[in-house]
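F.,

This is the one I mentioned.
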């Protein structure tokens, strides 16, 4: 990497623009035609309020560590890799949400799923 912004996503399309309407139509098309399997997958990944993604992955890793009978050093290595990847994702999410490209709306959900309030940024 040469800069922290190297992989930052572009800002969302302007509200009401042709690009916004196209993206909205795409999302609505998926929502209106999703299969029971797609709905089940979405519900699995939609973590409940108050649950942290890192906690979910630590629990998942612990189950896999036990299932595959990893040694203590192997388990520590697996957890270190998994938590490093989770932290990288959290940092990237916070960077994108905190940049001018992705202003945060009051009451929206942050990277950890917690409510964000008091934002001085607005959409538009």
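My design for it:
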């Amino acid at each position: 990497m040469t800069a922290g912004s190297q992989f930052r996503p572009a800002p969302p399309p302007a509200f009401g623009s042709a690009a916004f309407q196209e993206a909205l139509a795409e999302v609505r098309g998926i929502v209106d035609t999703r299969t029971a399997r797609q709905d089940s997958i979405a519900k699995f990944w939609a973590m409940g309020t108050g649950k942290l993604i890192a906690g979910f992955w630590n629990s998942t890793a612990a189950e896999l560590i036990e299932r595959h009978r990893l040694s203590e050093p192997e388990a520590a290595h697996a957890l270190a890799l998994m938590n490093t990847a989770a932290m990288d994702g959290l940092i990237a999410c916070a960077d994108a949400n905190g940049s001018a490209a992705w202003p945060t709306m009051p009451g929206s959900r942050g990277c950890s799923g917690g409510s964000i309030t008091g934002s001085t940024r607005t959409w538009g």
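Residues 100-108, 112-124 have pLDDT under 50 and may be disordered.

Talk soon.
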